[in-house]
Amino acid sequence: MKVIRFVFFFVLPALSMPLFRSFAQEHKYETGAAIGVSSYLGDANKTELLLSPNIAGGAVYRYNINFHWAARGNLLVGKASGDTQNSGNIFPNNERRNFNRPFAELSGQVEYNFFPFSNKYAYLDTKRYTPYIFAGVGVTLATGDNVFFNANIPFGVGIKYKIKERLNIGLEFSVRKLFGDDFDAPNKSETWNLNAPYNIKSSFFKNNDWYFLSMIHLTWDFGLRRTPCCD
Fold first, then answer.
1. What does the alpha-carbon distance between residue 20 and residue 24 come to, in Å, rounded to a whole number?
2. Which of 93, 100, 106, 131 yields a CA-CA distance of 20 to 30 A from 155?
3. Using CA atoms, how far apart are residues 177 and 211, in angstroms rounded to an integer?
4. Residue 67: enclosing H or E segment and its boundaries?
5. How far, in Å, CA of 161 to CA of 228, rounded?
6. Are 51 and 9 in contact (CB under 8 A)?
C-alpha cells in the first residue's frame, strides 16, 4: 500500500510536469468498447484475485492530450460474487454466506504512456505500442435489497497497440478500492451478513471491499488535429 501511495501521489505528479510541452497524436479522441472479467476481494475472498470471475464490459472514451498523456472516461457493468466457504476465514457461529451482485461504474482516469504513442512521426521516436499506468476517481452502483452506491479509486496497468492508423487495442488489469464494507452484503433482511462480519468498524485501510477488472479495449480515433503539436 505504501508503494501504491508513493507512485500515485509522487511519481505521477512529477511525470506530469512536461504535460503541456509534448507533441500530440494526430487525432484528439478515441471511443470504443471493453470486455473482460470482473472479480471481487473482500470478506468472502481475502487473497485470490481471480476467484469467481464474471463477465464485464462497457464503453470507453479517451482524450489524447499528447503522446504520453490521456484522460479517459469509462461506463462499465459487471458482476461480483463470492462464497465464505472459499474464503479461508472462520466467522462468528460458523456463519456462511454467498452472494451474486451486478454493478455499474462511472469513472474518470488519467493515463501515462511510457513510450510516445503513435504510428506516425518516427522522427519523434514514437512507438505504435506502449505500456501505461493510470489512476482516477469514480462511483459504483450495485443492485440489491441493500443498494450500494459509493466512491471508488481506480488504478492499474496496461499495454496498448495501434493496429492501424485509427484502430487501437489494449489489455489492462485494474483495481477498484471501494469506500464501504457492504459491497458483498446485498440483503438487508439477513441477521448476519458480510458488512463488518466481526463487528469491526471499517476505515480507509481496513475492511473495505475491492473489485478487479481484467479487460480488452478496442477503440477508434477521431477528431483530427490541425498539426501534430498540441492544440
1. 9
2. 100
3. 7
4. none
5. 19
6. no
Grid coordinates representing 223 are 477528431
Quote the CA–CA distance of 208 and 42 in Å, as a whole number.
Answer: 7
Q: What is the pTM of this model?
A: 0.80
Side chain identity at residue 145, one-letter code: D
Cell 478496442 sits on residue: 218
pLDDT 10s digit of each residue in the chain, 231 long? 554 555 455 555 444 444 444 567 788 999 999 999 999 887 777 777 778 899 999 999 999 999 999 999 999 999 998 776 666 666 555 666 678 899 999 999 999 999 999 988 888 889 999 999 999 999 999 988 889 999 999 999 999 999 998 999 999 999 999 988 888 877 776 665 556 555 556 555 555 789 999 999 999 999 988 754 544
Cα–Cα distance measured from residue 59 to residue 80, given in angstroms and rounded to the nearest whole number: 19
